[in-house]
Design brief:
The protein has about 270 residues and is mostly helical. It is about 75% helix and about 0% strand. It is flat, with a radius of gyration of 20 Å.
Amino acid sequence: MTFIPKDLPAEGGQRFDLPGGLLFLSGLTALLLGLNKGADWGWASLPVLGLLFGSFLLLVSFIQVERRSSSPMLDLNLFRIPLFSAATFSAVLNYICVYTITFLLPFYLIQGRGMDPAQAGLLLTAQPIIMAIAAPISGSLSDKIGSRWPGMIGMGLLSSGLFMLARLDATTPLLFVVLGLAVAGLGTGTFISPNTSALMGSAPPQRQGIASGVQAAARNAGMVLGIGLAGAIFTTHLAQNTPDALYHGIDMAFVAAGGIAVLGIVMSAIKEK
């Protein structure tokens, strides 16, 4: 049974949370700038460490402001619902993995394999096509058996696809790349519909609008973190200027994303049915 706090306020007209919005924007900006400049300035340099620590302080301050605000940008009361919290964090992890693929594969196909943008774009459609096919089937299945198992299976498939893509080099058959994208797309499609249903279904009826906003924020946070982390790993290896630096950087970023997907399996496993 899903626990829903009885003291959640009803939705209504709310003022824009300017202090919360500024803190959240500043925290993410500092985090992304630190990740982006780590390879250039040095990960142990004072500016990079200052940006990363500053982003931590800003985001902690954001949480404190949201707890006290009468019209918070992020309603933290919803995270007292265990299923809502698990579904939200699982969504963030999923989108980190998805946008890691979106960010890295064009570098591999265009710079690493000499494909033109049209050819690369055609090959990259393998992931969204499989995802579009799998999502409605998984959503229908989750209505019968719950969100836990589809979520776990979906994140498991996504991690498998990412670890497949972590083996790319200059001679990898393009069919193998398509297969890795297809497996990742199958995992994403299997995961998203049940997880979205769990997230929205766990929120009380009077907070559905806020829950939808949290879902969108989870997607955007995953996108930002996925691109930031993948870019940091990729550029760090690229700066070594070795013949295989491009491939090694891409592979290591996919290994990291695969590990995040494994964490997503754990998060999906603790979700209520």
